[in-house]
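Why does residue order matter? Because the sequence determines the fold. Keep that principle in mind as you read this record.
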Amino acid sequence: MTQTTTTRQHLAKKMASRACLAAAVAASSRGGVSAFGKSSIGRSGMMARSLSTISSSNNRFSSYPTTSTSYAINNSELSNRISSVAPSRSFQLNMSTVAAGATTARRVKTAEAEVSEEQVSIKGWVRTVRKQKTLAFVEVNDGSNMSGIQCVLPFDTVDEDTMKEIDNLTTGCSVHAIGQIIKSQGGKQAVELSASSLRIVGECPGDTFPLAKKRHSLEYLRTIAHLRPRTNTIAAVARVRSTLAGSIHKFFQGEGFNYVQTPLITASDCEGAGEMFRVTTLDIDDVASLPRAKDDEGKELAGVDYAEDFFGKAAFLTVSGQLGGETHACALGDVYTFGPTFRAENSQTTRHLAEFWMVEPEMAFADLTSAMDNAEAMLKACVGDVIEKCDEDLEFFGKFFDKGLKARLDKVVNKPFVRCEYRDAIKYLQEEIAKDPSKWQFPDVEFGTDLATEHERWLAETKFDSAVFVYNYPKSIKAFYMRDNDEDGGETVNAMDLLVPGVGELVGGSQREERMDVLVEKMKELDLDVEDYWWYLDLRRFGSVPHAGYGLGFERLVTYVCGIENIRDAIAFPRYPGNAEF
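Structure:
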């Protein structure tokens, strides 16, 4: 077969496809195609059913307005196009395995279902099926809310094909139902779908489906992370997470901040901790081929010569977008970053991930008080949005995970955050621990102690019963870029942590060190190569200004708002030591 012949056949099939689609849509707009019925156009019943199937088997097509003039072609032109080439077998789909045919029924999300005389379309996954003598009840969930919707299928009114489909319904299969939203006859839901037609879109073998209708442990669900969004818990987490993400953007955009996307690959260690993932294209499987570092005399050294690597130097996945954010804050005024960060910390706790998202605003001409004010306003706005938009999900979390969740979240929105100096926090802890040191895992607390989670939670939950900013930390336990306090000769830095009940540290921030000479000395003390940060020092060299910012661990916020304990359940595909599945 010549290339020309093949091309002509391809074009002919493409023309036939467009003509078939046009026919289906045109007939639907004239009322000639019912929900699952035959078309009034076409040269045979088989062709009519094929056209009906085509229109809905692809969401791109089924969502097109049926009155669109772009498909207005006359019948003779349509007949010529169709008759020129035989219909492709790919269009002759089995109606029992695809969504319903071309229809004018508007698709409705279950979260938005309201009583109406209009015929509507519901698409989702089956949660439960109950069959009685005269009707069947099918609970369908499309992910837009917790409860989904109950579809009632009276046997005396549904079509013959629907009756056949009912026998094949299983938990987990995807379906497309059409009917009318009515007031529910039962007491568990406000509305239900009185369905006239239902088709199985994708089958789900009940004997092998991993999510049987029972409550699974969160540990088990992590082993099937690709399916766990179909469970109530993880779907609710996903909806709350989505709402929080949208609220964060809305807050900062409303405050006049510019959204900046900082690089994921960097040569700088923002925290100075050295717990970074290396990025390289060198063939590490062939150790002998790795280029060796050499001294000035050409003698080989123990390390690798990363000048031969892709970026011409050692490169890593970033632990923070802060340094990059500062560059734009020193030009645009107020900016924020919101993206993934990485830390190669060998931790298996419920509070740490190797890949996580950070929200990091930076504000020019600002001090630590400005950063605390902004963080408090941001959290109140975001938590308020979740309370308003995710009430059903919060009810679920309050029932199964944290009975005091809603009261705690209301307190975040309505109660001012406490502000407490680090020295005072240490004093309060020492007084409490002295009563019974055996109750504490880390009873030794003094100035210079990096507060443990149990210390943070006691301050937030017991001492203050509130979110609390602890500020003015010892210089020795904070990062190099934090501004030294002049009041105590640099013994402390102008830094803060926000501690919240149930989690502990949620936000960490500081006023940044804008004095170049002080910053350089601090970098040298930590053995950081000043040359690697030449661009960061330029911000102090050329028009330096006081500026401040903070970082919010997004997954920690999700766990806090949802009342769940393990951070691995706050992200779609958790990455931690020993696990990089999916």
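The two ends are 43 Å apart (CA to CA).
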